[in-house]
Amino acid sequence: MPVTDVITDTENLTMTVIADLAAPVERVWEVYSDPRQLERFWGPPGWPATFTSWDQTVGGRADYTMHGPRGEKAAGTWEFLEIDRPRGFAVIDAFADDDGHPDPDLPSMRMTFTFEQTAEGTRMVNTSHFASAEALEQLIAMGAIEGTTMAMSQMDAVLQDLRDYAQGKGTQVTLLDDVHVRITRLVEGPRELVWRAHNEPDLMKQWLLGPDGWEMTEVAVASEVGQSYRTSWAPVGDTEGEPFGFEGEALLIDAPRRSVQTERMIGMPVETLNDLNLYEEDGATLITLYIEYPDKETRDMILATGMAEGMETSYARLERELLAV
């Protein structure tokens, strides 16, 4: 992950995040100056940001909203204080209410970003200055350190060309913390078709099969928030194994970019939260699946079943059977 250190200084009322990025200063400046690129990593996994206004001039303002996996929203605003292209900038960062006004019940801070060239790329130093020790402690208690670290873990995919970042690497599993996992797979095909392949029963039956020798026997798709879905598989011919399936509810649908569902193996009480995100660049689509487990033991048990290997077989079939047509 890019973050190499997080330093809290209760005497000087600051929190400093240091990240080493494998990109030149000019490229780092670019992603912090383009709201479409910035919103790919500003919110932590499961809470992507959408910038609704952007005026990166001294005295200008940017407004954004982060959307949680269960429909939650958290709004924020930046007021630009200093701009030193491409070496850095400073803003007043504040939580905002539904009307975009700073929320007086939540801490605001002056944030400075500096980008310094290194032998490997760029060192980013982000320092937040607080008005009081209580404000600093409140933000830390809200999970700012963990959230910032996980948000920055998304930057590599933004800084690099998408194919350079993911092509040929297959299905990648990253443990974000004890209960959160990120799974990524680049597929050669447009996002619209990849979305359809995840949501249309006839297409799902062609690729979403896991290892060879299995067939999908039941597909009931949730097309609206609040609806339930159900999928089942069974072995074919001499393939060993017992039929199984999953069920759950749709919590968020933002076609063709994002869907969030709960998931339970049929007959089992354990439930996960599955947050699917699709991003297209130059005709290729990066599939990113964030999974939230109830605890570390469940996470490790499910990953040990060979889940990632089965997903890779399915994704390879997706490219071969649907996207290459």
Automatic annotation (TrEMBL):
SUPFAM superfamilies: Bet v1-like (SSF55961)
UniProt xrefs under CDD domains: SRPBCC_CalC_Aha1-like (cd07814)
Domain of life of the source: Bacteria
A Pfam family it matches: AHSA1
Domain Activator of Hsp90 ATPase homologue 1/2-like C-terminal: start-end pairs: 23-159, 190-321
InterPro entries: ASHA1/2-like_C, START-like_dom_sf
Gene3D superfamilies per record: 3.30.530.20
Homology family: Belongs to the AHA1 family.
Protein name, as recorded: Activator of Hsp90 ATPase homologue 1/2-like C-terminal domain-containing protein
